[in-house]
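ok so I'm stuck.
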Amino acid sequence: MAVQTLELKPVVSFAAVLHYIKSPLRIPAWFVVLVVLMAGAYGYVSGRQNPVHHYVPYVGYPLVLDTTTGKACYSSAPKPGDDASAINAAYPADTESTPGPSIPMCAR
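replied:
not stuck anymore, here's the structure
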């Protein structure tokens, strides 16, 4: 029994389309290499100056650790009912001055 296969021929060949696109766009190869190198250099420099921050859970829910800088920060504002407010309620004289550095909010 003879096997019949369906062979589709393109309406326009790929070579004809490539020739049509290439002919009006005469871009030198050195210019393409220069643009690629400049884009790579820009990406490298911007990545070094503005690194992507990666946060992992640290102690409690709102407290996270920034693995890029190694510093702890709050991912959201702590609720007034957290442990710090209970300590401040027990010792009202210490509400203005808290010992140690305060933990900042994360810059996103």
